[in-house]
Prior knowledge:
By secondary structure, the protein is mainly α. The protein contains 23 helices and no strands.
Amino acid sequence: xxxxxxxxxxxxxxxxxxxxxxxxxxxxxxxxxxxxxxxxxxxxxxxxxxxxxxxxxxxxxxxxxxxxxxxxxxxxxxxxxxxxxxxxxxxxxxxxxxxxxxxxxxxxxxxxxxxxxxxxxxxxxxxxxxxxxxxxxxxxxxxxxxxxxxxxxxxxxxxxxxxxxxxxxxxxxxxxxxxxxxxxxxxxxxxxxxxxxxxxxxxxxxxxxxxxxxxxxxxxxxxxxxxxxxxxxxxxxxxxxxxxxxxxxxxxxxxxxxxxxxxxxxxxxxxxxxxxxxxxxxxxxxxxxxxxxxxxxxxxxxxxxxxxxxxxxxxxxxxxxxxxxxxxxxxxxxxxxxxxxxxxxxxxxxxxxxxxxxxxxxxxxxxxxxxxxxxxxxxxxxxxxxxxxxxxxxxxxxxxxxxxxxxxxxxxxxxxxxxxxxxxxxxxxxxxxxxxxxxxxxxxxxxxxxxxxxxxxxxxxxxxxxxxxxxxxxx
Length: 475
């Protein structure tokens, strides 16, 4: 005996012919002569519809029901009410399958399902069958390049008979549009779903159409498009789910990160002479683009807090922190650290160090002072790690006098900076001498490094000789 689940695989297409007694949206118009006629009870026609069924097991009531429903002279519920005593549960399921086939009246299948539900005849197996059928209908409409309105009409029709489209169904349609490269239709579908409230029961809890489409965009690397989508939908007086704002904030972080990588490559090309230096207009455009991204992120964060409430504060501060780190905004990033800490969501130690390095590169003295207070109660190993981040921040910002002071602090604690860091500070100080002529910090650093056994006096001697100064042998 064939499986009822196997029957669903024979669902190929749908057509909805409007019943004058029901206002179910017309999805696809099919010429009535294309429908399979079963009035002669020719078993060959039934085989085309239900190949997996043992035909000799079907009763006269089944054929009678199909014939009556085919005539469309009476409401399907009246037909089924009259013949229900002659039909088994399996045959009722077969009626659903028959009227879900290509060229058939899917409207009738929906009517049959509605009657089954009203009569409390929808068991788990029948529900799974109907879900499979409706997925097939939606897939065929999308792949057949029908208007978005047709797909929406089908979902509304399902809702009318109590077959409510859930988020998984909405998600499936969005995926189909996206995988077919129909991005504009996917966006239009999401907007229509929100406008009509399809599948919306008390709010989207753990996901929704806007966020899912934005996530699909992000997966393809279209971060800016994902941000614009969520903002545009929100500003169109539709109601995207709160989680879509968080997804868009993640897109802001990723876009800022990619933008930062592009800027780094651009700067490396200018240093090697492959391209000319950026002019004032270029720099203004770069600053404007980054500021726009940050502004979008802040606006999204405000919407999360307004609509999501206190339970979302922690994740919002995390996203804002990541945004400001990617943008290299030290003080703003530090502010989010303290917000997280006050909220009881202790940031990772590495985040403190990263923000410290950013602040050091910008020589944000107050922020640096506050961030350094935490190393007083940490281990020596963690002190070295934090001071190394501070040192590299100063080096990146070309604050070599401050970098040298950091090296002194490390040596006082008995920890040694990495060789490349030492070399970078010495090189920076040498370049500074060409401008200021002040050799004191350079000399002091060389002596401290030599005392620690990290370098020899020859470095001091060779350099200072250039300024006609001599150094007594350093021990």
